[in-house]
Amino acid sequence: MPEMPEVQGLVDFLAERLTGLQITRTMVANIAALKTYDPPIDALHGAEITGATRHGKFIDLATTGTDAAPHLVFHLAKAGWLRFTDQLAPTLIKPGKTPIALRVALSDGSGFDLTEAGTKKSLAFSVVRDPSDVPGIARLGPDPLDPAFTRDTLAGLLAGRRTQIKGVLRDQATIAGVGNAYSDEILHAAKMSPYALASSLDDADIERLFAAMITTLTEAVAEASGKPPADLKDAKRRGMQVHGRRGETCPVCGDVVRSVFFADNSLEYCPTCQTGGKILADRRLSRLLK
């Protein structure tokens, strides 16, 4: 799943490459992914792209169209991606027979597709007059890389929450932009169990978690910066210390990276670094160890 660093990398690329170009046409191949009807998607035709912005894990392309300057806002969900080409093929896309959800053609002959792998379709795009009209954006919590997000901000978000810290970090209404992969990385850097209750963290824990969050995300954003969309996924994988590395050696202590599996994803952690050597029970086999 693309998370804040990869989404920011896409935003930087799109802002540099697309600003000043006009959208000449759009082709919707998955009508279920289009979440709005007013303005119609045709309102984008002839609109000039004026910039790209990130809201959590949402990408927002602003335009100077004729209908209240419509925004094309999209969320790539778990298996979505943006595929850009300098010369868009003229071939038509056939709904239901392609991973493409939306194709956008641009005035210099380039364009991009929003694609989604697998059978479970969650990718979503909207055409709106204001990004806050997208419910997912309206519900977002603060962005951890916003200069206004401080250690005290984090402490306030955690206070009184009897929820596992892994879930808190992934909750977009609490903290925007962090998902499964970077929550694993942040907790590893903070030397903290994913099952620790948010309300149980003391001042030293919160200080350590805040530092780990800012450092991990800042470094990942810097790594994604300047890379074209095709290179962002590999850059993400290379930067992971524990996420997606089950059975490999922890680069910090040399222990074996372990996993806990859930219905549709998993978390990775290092027992020595994060749980005092305790192996967390696999949800598929038994109840969670506390």
Automatic annotation (TrEMBL):
UniProt keyword annotation of Lyase present: yes
UniProt-listed GO biological process terms: base-excision repair
Any one GO molecular-function label of the UniProt entry: lyase activity
Record's keyword terms, sorted: DNA damage, DNA repair, DNA-binding, Glycosidase, Hydrolase, Lyase, Metal-binding, Multifunctional enzyme, Zinc, Zinc-finger
Catalysed reactions, as listed in the record: Hydrolysis of DNA containing ring-opened 7-methylguanine residues, releasing 2,6-diamino-4-hydroxy-5-(N-methyl)formamidopyrimidine
Domain named FPG-type: residues: 241-275
Required cofactor(s): Zn(2+)
Occurrences of domain Formamidopyrimidine-DNA glycosylase catalytic (ranges): 2-123
Domain of life: Bacteria
Gene3D superfamilies tied to this protein: 1.10.8.50, MutM-like, N-terminal
Keyword DNA repair tagged: yes
Family: Belongs to the FPG family.
Name used for this protein in its record: Fpg/Nei family DNA glycosylase
Species the sequence originates in: Microbacterium allomyrinae
